């Protein structure tokens, strides 16, 4: 302990870690400082410099007055769209995944493994392949161009993942607890509601974070299946950045990107600890 | 409280026969122990009684009513599991009340029953705690309490003591026996521990390979085993087994050439190969004994000592009360109690009477 070589390697280790940490933080720094500068400073100076004149103007513009669709509404209505999309899509896909996992593991169902294999396969289907069939389906359901339609698409696409999470978690669930509850008189839903679900906190957190991040950041479905009223935030951000008229307001773009990233950052900061713990629980025991 | 009758219950998984034609009848209030090595089918039999698995063939009747196809919840049977199976998200009192709640017992009645059971098992001070705040013995009590609160017709115990340490196991064993004497609920108790089986059961069914080898009272199993497996399984230290050949109907010769009288005639003809079984307590050190050999190991336990001796190619164990002064390599002469020798067929293991 405490020998010279030890100390050197320790310093080197910390040096590398700090360097890597800074590297990961760098994009946030660049976005942050440039979203707080007037446009002139970005054009004239370098991207790494702190603002000489601090301003919140780009944030206000990005939020409420930037030109995105036909009207200069800013990102605000699309931010709301994304919430209206993400909250039900996450809750519904998580609930279905939990029930699927419960049925696949706790009942001796003929063909359970085949059903699971098929659900698992859906995880590996690229988005592009389902675009056209999905457009037809949404059209037939009368959901084309609506937020509800996007909820439907994201739920369908998420079931594979959520089922995988819950199935692996419940495969390691103590069988004697389930048998005991059955003997005590609990039926299908009460067994799930009173015994399994209250003991599923880690995997519920993992699933919610996973689904929230994926659906919040999802672009292709949003671009394909929504119209100018139902754009999710990612599509709105794209429109903001790619608007072809007038000057490129980079500071507003930075602010807009930052606004779009805030919810996922918040979710990770608040529950990242559970995320790692839950992933471990699922993978190690499953 | 009820009678339970199993008629020709069989269970197979594919080509594997786990249980073969099990027939049993439990009288009201009886305490039956199912004992056997792991993989003998005892847990499967328990699950079939509980309704958690369906038998391939055969039927079950509880208090005369056929329950073969009833779901577990529809049978009035409670079970105590090896892992205790307490619901981790509920407090002790919620755990005990859970089966009552599922049966739609009113809140006031539930509280009353929880209080009664808690008093009976002396766990009143634990009612507000969660299972993870309890010790192994406390969890076991709560699990028993939860089973008791339902007032079931039949109690099942699936190796309930195997997760406890040795001292606690002995205490809980006595507790379960006391509880049974007090409540009189018909009980099936599964274990692989022959001491638990002997001390608890009013009758014991010894299972091996999905077949009941013998069903009898503990003392009958011990003194009058049906085959070598039962003789070996019950009793510690294990029964001594010696190769022998019949000389006449009441006389055998050991491999060493020593001849021993059987005390009474058996169904054997001269020259037949036999396995001779004799319990360690039926052998004693005796200067006039017909067996001679050398002491190999002395194991004092306090109240008694186990002495192992080599008698010409075979080792036997003697159970001797009190202290012994013998040392390894001492010469020893051994006598057996008259009428204590059991004969078995070396091929089938069946007892020869």
Summary tags:
heterodimer, A: 286 residues, mainly alpha, MetI-like fold, 13 helices, flat, disordered C terminus, B: 353 residues, alpha+beta, Rossmann fold, OB fold (Dihydrolipoamide Acetyltransferase, E2P), 2 domains, 8 helices, 21 strands
Task: Explain what the structure shows.
The complex is a heterodimer of chains A (about 290) and B (about 350). Chain A is mainly α. Chain A folds into 2 domains: about 5-55, no CATH class; about 75-285, MetI-like (MetI-like fold, Orthogonal Bundle), CATH 1.10.3720.10. Chain A is about 75% helix and about 0% strand. Chain A is flat. Chain B is of the alpha+beta class and about 350 residues long. Chain B has 2 domains: about 5-235, Rossmann fold; about 240-350, OB fold (Dihydrolipoamide Acetyltransferase, E2P). Chain B has helices spanning about 40-50, 90-100, 105-120, 135-150, 165-185, 195-200, 220-225, 230-235, and strands at about 5-15, 15-25, 30-35, 55-60, 65, 75-80, 155-160, 185-190, 205-210, 210-215, 240-250, 250-255, 260, 275-280, 285, 290-300, 305-310, 315-320, 330-335, 340-345, 350. In chain B, helix 3 (about 105-120) packs across helix 4 (about 135-150). The longest helix of chain B has 18 residues, at about 165-185. The mean pLDDT of chain B is about 90. The interface of A and B includes residues 185 and 194 of A.
